[in-house]
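User: Predict structure, ligand pyridoxal-5'-phosphate.
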Amino acid sequence: MDTTSCKYETLALNLQALIENNHFAAGYKLPSIRKLSEQWHYSIDTVQKALNLLEDRGYVQPVAKSGYYVQARNVPVGAVCTQAPDSIVLEPPVNLEVADQIAMLLRSSTREGVAPLGVAFPAHELLPIATLRRSYATVNRTRPDLLTLGSHVEPNQPELVQQLQQRFELMGMKLKRDELVITDGCTEALSLALQSVAKHNDIVAVESPGDYLLLEMIESLGLRALEIPSSPEHGMSLEALEIAVKQTRIAACIVCPTASNPMGSVMPDNNRKKLLELAEKYDFPIVEDNVYADLYFERFRPRPLKAGKQSDRVLMCGSFSKSLSPSLRIGYVAGGKYAAQVLSKKRILSGSTNPITQVAVAHYLEKGSFERHLRTLRQQFETQVRAMGNLVLKHFPQGTRISEPKGGFVLWVELPGDIDTAALFNKAIARKVAYMPGSVFSASGLYKNCIRLNCGHPVTDDTAVAIAKLGALFEGSLVA
Ligand SMILES: Cc1ncc(COP(=O)(O)O)c(C=O)c1O
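Assistant: Predicted complex:
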């Protein structure tokens, strides 16, 4: 086989898929030939041949002394974002430097008087704060022993473990007590899971676009992110994942199968099964991020990966941050065959999660109103997400596309042209509106023309004004 032609054909296919999936939107200037060669580890000659092929196929157009530009294609107004490509789209593993930028974005987004469309927080009036306070009061009154427990002995309070076991059993998972480790939110759960399966410089497959917190974590742990394209419809592309794992050893695949962040996708049952089969075939663990898993919009709860076959290689992580309160900092890992490593890391890194809060959450769960609260919350979030989508389609420039979330409370928005949403962020804050720029959801700076909007708050006239201001800002930058 002529391997040179294989290489440039493969690269052309990958770039073509990025274009079709709008990772590179119409009008976007592709990275220079030298940059593409560095990023994809192909020779300059191979990159040039791939670009020639794409030009022949009508995907790109060379502009003298400037570079290659993505050709315009017809995009229906207000259309929902497209599915992931059938062909393979692999970003080369990269080291990330995003932490400082994200810290700045989070600070600005939560400033007093700024419309809260940036950070993904639910409005506090939607959360059962009064009931939680009563649970705290009861535990304070009845369990003075919790104030004097020794640290680094037992990370788990048995009451909470029991409540979790009961909940998970209803979802088809029979978890042993010692498989669970209570953590400081899902953040620590993911970090412990990663540290239990990966070591410095290892490659971790992530959804693209994917949660920026995870990308920051991967950077800080000295790991490398391999971006696997994901669609608003089906989540992670398993075709792309399979190509990746055939070529590269991955230490883990992290996936948010239910209500992913930022697209709100739900992985279909068949894909869940296939992902587990891939994990078995290519021998890698799956870190299942279930932080939004209680917030599905369909009638029935999607079956967690952990409830499938090969569940031993799934490290299921979750928390009560999106459904009860982000300040509780109560999460968990069900570590499967890695449970002992997770427990050991937890003991070394933080001893235990606050036992008073653990027992307060257990008390709240035991009272039995959680499922009712979740039913109301899911309906409310779905209403808010849909209302936000309508506002965006009304006020944003023509050609804007939105995701159609199947759960959670964030909306992914793709703007037309070559709008750079990170560059416009400060202007939006000056107009007292926040959003998360799309580029932070990629390890390699994709999604520059996208934003994520928080829909965790009831949509009011103020929201409409905020979205209209953003629309005008983006429209203005298109004209400029
Ligand atoms: C996908 C995803 N995973 C994990 C987390 C972290 O959750 P926690 O606040 O429980 O640490 C978040 C928080 O925003 C998230 O969006």
